[in-house]
Specification:
By secondary structure, this protein is an alpha/beta fold. Among the domains are: about 5-85, Gyrase A, domain 2 (2-Layer Sandwich), CATH 3.30.1360.70; about 435-550, Isoleucyl-tRNA Synthetase, Domain 1 (Orthogonal Bundle). About 55% of the residues lie in helices and about 10% in strands. It is built from 22 helices and 13 strands. The chain has helices spanning about 5-10, 35-45, 50-60, 65-70, 85-100, 130-145, 165-175, 185-200, 205-220, 220-245, 265-270, 310-325, 340-355, 390-400, 405-415, 430-435, 440-455, 460-465, 475-490, 490-500, 500-520, 530-550, and strands spanning about 20-25, 35, 70-75, 80-85, 115-120, 150-155, 275-280, 285-290, 295-305, 330-340, 365-370, 375, 425. The strands form four sheets. It has a four-stranded antiparallel sheet with strand order 1-2-4-3. It has a four-stranded parallel sheet with strand order 6-5-10-11, sandwiched between helices. Helix 7 (about 165-175) crosses helix 8 (about 185-200), helix 9 (about 205-220) crosses helix 10 and helix 18 (about 460-465) crosses helix 22. The longest helix is centred in the middle third of the chain and has 25 residues, at about 220-245. The radius of gyration is 28 Å and the shape is globular. Residues about 380-385 have low confidence and may be disordered. Bound molecules: arginine (ARG). The site of arginine has 10 residues, from helix 12 and strand 10. Arginine binds near residues 118, 122, 123, 158 and 160. It is found in: Cytoplasm. One of its GO terms (molecular function) is arginine-tRNA ligase activity. Keywords: Aminoacyl-tRNA synthetase, ATP-binding, Cytoplasm, Ligase, Nucleotide-binding, Protein biosynthesis. Belongs to the class-I aminoacyl-tRNA synthetase family. Its main location: cytoplasm.
């Protein structure tokens, strides 16, 4: 059992069913854990919190399980109760942690639960944008965090492979009877689309042609279907290369086209359940009103006045399938999608609950929104502002980083994950590749340093574990509690997963590296009496950094 759980259990005995917190005090001299239970209860019982804390300390001291674990329990401040963990308990935990290997830092708070993370979701015939890069990196980190929290996780790449824009591509390509597919790549496809779009502004007749082409696609017309299929293949080839580079594998790639067949069903259901109504010009809309009939959000369109379905309809169909298909069915559905789709997804989630109240009862829909990323000017081939050829970014990273792809890729990923996903930011090479600041190369370097210490000592892990007995100074204990009580016990991973916040893990890792460096500067490790314990701490700091980076998809190297 985890230390925090034993404390919680002991405290709960006296909590009269009330909610209380067990946390790490901000200041180390205040102990390893602290609870506010006395303050919570004092209000309830009309007692002085400080006095109640003193009483409760007496009672808690009588708890046998707790006594094995803690060396001291004390009331503090206005009514906190602080706990100090015995040194020998920490040292035993340290040995355990070093033996955990790939399980180190994992939580099990999601055991028995299923989670689906949808991310990346680029659009066919358009280049993979920086927004899709953000979605892919953040989505993968969230996927990993849940995997390391005991959940059964699956992922889905919700490709944008349907919609009226394909009418334009089809119409444009059909203009040229001898269209040569040979040299066509995704850039060319995007050009064709952009060009047709431009011409359409001046020539309304082209608009009708695109509409007609899309209608044919929906009906399964061979020529339209072929062009669509080719566009999908060409685009996927490009996307798959990016996924390979980033180490991303999808269980499901269910694009919007997948849900086309479900459209009539959804529309019927919305009508019979009286969730949709006929709006202006014959469109079918879903309104979002509160009990008093006041509009909470603007209405969403289910069917356009020209009879075609929308992105919104396809998202509802997607949910319908995700609620019933055993391979997709989950308790938590995470959507890693740009912040500009906030309203859209809110409308989708609310409409889904209206449509399927039973099926969505114990289901959580979460939109993890990412902000805008601007790229540095110059060599980067930016076209239309925010689209880049991703290869350029990654190639540039490789040119700039010392140490090849592991370092450059890690730098790009970490630079993304260290901040809250919703933030806008400007990509800066110096920041991403810095060897001193909060960056992947810095953490990778500190890991290499910890390995170097062990190698230099000539000791084996087994020997290190056997010989370490006690702390000889505060520095050692402080680093031990930081590594053990936060990471090894699963706290960091659990919190980052619960909050859909990989940046929490990054912040922890950066602080770990800083703490280790401080420790290493102040304490000789090799050739001192306490060598074993210090080596064990060094080793564990390295393992924690390695494992933490692995969870966010960043590899480590043994030499740098
Ligand atoms: N393809 C969309 C885009 O690039 C993102 C899809 C987001 N997911 C969803 N279920 N709507 O903007």
């Amino acid at each position: 059992m985890k230390i925090i759980e034993i404390i919680r259990e002991a405290v709960a005995e006296f909590a009269l069913g009330k909610e209380f917190a067990v946390e790490h005090p901000a200041e180390e001299k205040m102990g390893d854990f602290s609870t506010n239970v006395a303050m919570v209860l004092a209000k309830e019982l009309g007692r002085n919190p400080r006095e109640l804390a003193v009483d409760l300390v007496g009672k808690l001291e009588g708890n046998k399980k707790l006594r094995k674990l803690v060396s001291k329990i004390e009331p503090a401040g206005p009514g906190f109760i602080n706990f100090w963990i015995k040194d020998e308990v920490l040292i035993k935990k340290m040995d355990e942690a070093l033996g955990m290997k790939e399980k180190l830092g994992d939580s099990d708070f999601m055991k028995g639960k299923k989670v689906l993370v949808e991310y990346s979701s680029p659009n066919i015939a358009k280049r993979f944008s920086v927004g899709h890069l953000r979605s892919t990196i953040i989505g993968q980190a969230i996927f990993n965090l849940y995997k390391h929290s005991g959940a059964e996780v699956t992922n889905d790449n919700h490709l944008g492979d349907w919609g009226t824009q394909f009418g334009m591509i089809i119409a444009a390509i059909e203009e040229n009877e001898k269209f040569d597919w040979n040299s066509v790549d995704i850039n060319k496809l995007e050009e064709i689309y952009v060009d047709f779009n431009k011409r359409m502004e001046e020539n309304p007749e082209l608009r009708d042609r695109a509409k007609e082409a899309f209608l044919r696609l929906e009906k399964g017309d061979e020529s339209a279907r072929n062009i669509w299929q080719k566009s999908v293949e060409i685009s996927m080839k490009e996307f798959d290369e990016i996924y390979k580079k980033l180490g991303v594998i999808f269980d499901h790639v269910l694009g919007e086209s997948e849900y086309e067949k479900l459209m009539p069903e959804i529309i019927e259901e919305a009508k019979t359940k009286k969730i949709a109504s006929v709006g202006e010009e014959g469109a079918l809309i879903v309104e979002f009103l509160d009990e008093r009939g006041k509009e909470q959000m603007p209405p969403a369109m289910l069917v356009k006045s020209d009879g075609s379905t929308t992105y919104f309809t396809r998202d509802l169909a997607t949910i319908k399938r995700r609620l019933s298909d055993p391979a997709l069915k989950s308790e938590v559905f995470v959507y890693e999608v740009g912040g500009e789709q906030r309203l859209h997804l809110k409308q989708v989630f609310v409409a889904a609950v209206k449509l399927w109240p039973e099926e969505t009862k114990s289901v959580q829909f979460v939109h993890v929104a990412h902000g805008l990323l601007s790229l540095p000017e110059g060599k980067m081939s930016t076209r239309k502002g925010n689209t880049i050829k991703l290869e350029d970014l990654l190639e540039r990273a490789e040119e700039k980083a010392v140490g090849g792809e592991v370092i450059s890729l890690g730098a790009v990923k970490y630079n993304e994950l260290k901040r809250s996903p919703g933030m806008d930011y400007i990509f800066k090479w110096d920041e991403a590749l810095s060897m001193e600041g909060n960056s992947a190369p810095y953490l990778q370097y500190v890991y290499v340093r910890t390995r170097g210490v062990l190698n230099k000592s000539g000791e084996s892990l087994e020997k290190v574990l056997k010989d370490n007995k006690e702390f000889t100074n505060e520095d050692e204990r402080s680093l031990a509690r930081w590594l053990l009580l936060r990471f090894a016990e699963g706290e960091v991973v659990e919190s980052a997963a619960k909050n859909f916040a990989p940046q929490q893990l990054c912040a922890y890792l950066f602080e770990t590296a800083q703490k280790f460096n401080g420790f290493y500067e102040r304490n000789k490790v090799i050739g001192v009496e306490n060598q074993s314990l210090r080596l064990a701490l060094t080793l564990l700091a390295g393992e924690v950094i390695k494992k933490g980076l692995e969870i966010i998809g960043v590899e480590t190297v043994e030499k740098m």
